[in-house]
């Protein structure tokens, strides 16, 4: 028996096995430069779609292990997983960019990459993705049968993406708004029409791009008012404009998104679209909430500096008082009928100072578990303000007055 083997008998590396692709070993287009064997694999449309399904399986595993707003035991492993997911999506975007692919698949990949870069706190990738997504992909045109160029129907997420771009400018350049207004001016009217755009020919021709053109006009008004409140330091109005109910209308629901894009289970299987289980999480809305909350945090820091200079102390309702009264009514603490009637008629409520502070500092969370602004003001304001002042106390900015619950003395710098 010969000791040597023929070339055909030598086992190939698994990345080159016929009929089977090993996605983990696919090289990045930018790193291989086409010199490595299989280095241009992601330039093939079919491979791109297969790779999208592979990345989606990784993403589904991440959501299963780390559900949104859940406690995390191993933060380091979570951050490493997020970084790896962003790398996989970036590798896929490189393949799409190298082929100049501009269709619904490319748009979906860039949109998902954008949302994840915001959720995973990667501002450098957010800026990079937005520069190509707006307006390159959304305004990509294809020749019709007659030979004339016609606009590809806008993605149902084009409006929310435009808002994400503008919010990103407000956050990165805060308190300056020069880049925000430059971007607002550069955005094509078809993506974010202003209130007077409906009179122009441009808007009338392209108004079919959005199912509800007036909703896009409302989004334009909302983002401008938000910037105006920041510039004028109108924090009470900012709290109203930055609540979840103020912008949730600009993001399509997951069901309407599927209906608009025509996605089905069969289409998802072959085109690389996200799985139905992953779409249960509204990524555009989650990304919008994170950017709005980041903007509120910057405004909150500015407002707090103003309040510290203007006031010597704050007299707030201790959260224990509100909780105790609520418990006595809810749990039915033994009491006389007259006292019970009095409690129901006049339940304990946060002081005007407490409510004012919660509103001025925009402390109300953007979590979907908060059903209305009234709930926050009536039940949670005392807890929110007390938590905030306790944090400021640890930072040495305020101190609690001895023997007087709810009284906080401002420590001047």
TrEMBL record:
Natural source organism: Grifola frondosa
This protein's name: Uncharacterized protein
Biased composition (Polar residues): 323-336
Residue ranges, annotated region (Disordered): 255-277, 323-350
């Amino acid at each position: 028996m010969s000791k040597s083997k023929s070339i055909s008998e030598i086992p190939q590396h698994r990345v080159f096995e016929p009929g089977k692709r090993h996605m983990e070993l696919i090289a990045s287009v930018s790193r291989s430069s086409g010199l490595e064997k299989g280095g241009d694999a992601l330039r093939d449309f079919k491979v791109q779609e297969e790779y999208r399904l592979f990345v989606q399986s990784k993403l589904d595993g991440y959501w299963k292990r780390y559900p949104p707003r859940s406690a995390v035991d191993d933060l380091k492993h979570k951050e490493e997983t997020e970084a790896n997911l962003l790398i996989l999506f970036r590798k896929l975007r490189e393949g799409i960019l190298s082929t100049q692919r501009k269709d619904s698949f490319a748009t979906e990949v860039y949109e998902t990459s954008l949302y994840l870069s915001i959720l995973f706190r990667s501002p450098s990738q957010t800026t990079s993705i937005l520069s190509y997504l707006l307006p390159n992909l959304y305004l990509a045109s294809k020749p019709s049968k007659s030979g004339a160029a016609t606009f590809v129907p806008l993605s149902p997420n084009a409006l929310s993406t435009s808002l994400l771009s503008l919010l990103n400018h407000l956050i990165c350049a805060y308190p300056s708004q020069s880049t925000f207004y430059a971007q607002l001016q550069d955005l094509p009217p078809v993506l974010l029409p202003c209130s007077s755009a409906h009179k122009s020919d441009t808007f009338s021709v392209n108004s079919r791009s959005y199912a509800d053109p007036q909703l896009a006009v409302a989004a334009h008004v909302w983002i401008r008012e938000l910037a105006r409140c920041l510039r004028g330091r109108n924090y009470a109005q900012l709290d109203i404009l930055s609540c979840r109910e103020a912008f949730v209308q600009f993001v399509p629901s997951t069901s309407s998104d599927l209906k608009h894009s025509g996605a089905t289970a069969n289409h998802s299987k072959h085109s690389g679209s996200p799985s139905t289980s992953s779409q249960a999480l509204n990524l555009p809305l989650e990304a919008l909430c994170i950017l709005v909350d980041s903007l509120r945090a910057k405004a909150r820091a500015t407002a707090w500096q103003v309040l510290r200079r203007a006031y010597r102390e704050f007299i707030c309702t201790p959260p224990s008082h509100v909780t105790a009264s609520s418990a006595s009514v809810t749990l039915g603490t033994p009491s006389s009928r007259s006292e019970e009637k009095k409690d129901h008629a006049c339940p304990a409520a946060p002081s005007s100072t407490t409510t004012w502070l919660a509103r001025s500092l925009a402390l109300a969370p953007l979590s979907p578990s908060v059903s209305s602004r009234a709930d926050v003001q009536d039940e949670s304001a005392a807890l929110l303000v007390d938590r905030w002042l306790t944090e400021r106390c640890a930072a040495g900015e305020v101190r609690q007055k001895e023997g007087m619950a709810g009284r906080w003395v401002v420590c001047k710098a």
